[in-house]
Design a protein that fits this description.
Largest sheet: 3 strands, antiparallel
Order of helices and strands: EEEEHHHEHHHHEHE
Number of domains: 3
Radius of gyration: 21 Å
Number of strands: 7
CATH class of the largest domain: Alpha Beta
Structural class: alpha+beta
CATH architecture of the largest domain: Alpha-Beta Complex
Number of helices: 8
CATH topology of the largest domain: Outer Surface Protein A, domain 3
Distance between the termini: 42 Å
């Protein structure tokens, strides 16, 4: 596991010993008391380190053995952590397509709040790539809908329309 605080949850310190993750009441969580070393460790939960490296960093900060694992377990159980390397094979394939994943990062951040388990959000996002959607009608609504589906990472969007585009069919976004 490569734990990371879910990117949609901004972190803010309420006081010297209390940190709040997330601002919206539906997702916000307050954690405390947090000592200085644990607060520094929270900054390392960015998905670039696996648990062995985090444990080493914790020891260098003077944290007792088991503290890193306990913190990661508690934050994960609270729905605050994601796994930067988690998910199945489709998620791994998506991560390898950096330009696609970069474009879909806002979707991934939002999904991470709905899919609480680490790695589940990227699995859901990767599953979109296997979807096929047919939009019937390329009018004002159909074209905008098709562009939104394609922009959200749907694998194949097939727009069907037998008519001609007329001036009244043109709308912002399509």
């Amino acid at each position: 596991m490569h734990p990371m605080v879910k990117p949609a949850l901004r972190r803010g310190w309420r006081d010297l010993n209390t940190v709040q993750f997330g601002m919206a009441p539906a997702h916000a969580m307050v954690v405390g008391p947090v000592d200085t070393a644990t607060g520094s460790l929270l900054g390392l939960l960015d998905g670039t380190r696996g648990l062995p490296l985090l444990r080493d960093e914790g020891r260098r900060m003077g944290l007792p053995d088991g503290h890193v694992d306990t913190l990661v377990e508690r934050l994960s159980a609270s729905g605050l952590l994601d796994d930067a390397k988690g998910g199945g094979p489709e998620a791994t394939d998506l991560r390898e397509r950096k330009e696609v994943l970069d474009r879909l990062r806002p979707d991934l951040a939002s999904l991470s709040l709905l899919a609480r388990e680490p790695g589940a959000a990227v699995d859901r996002l990767a599953a979109r790539r296997s979807l096929r959607v047919r939009v019937r009608g390329a009018g004002r609504v159909g074209v905008v809908l098709a562009s939104l589906l394609a922009g959200a990472g749907v694998g194949e969007v097939d727009v069907r329309d037998i008519g001609r585009v007329e001036p009244w069919d043109v709308a912002p976004g399509g």
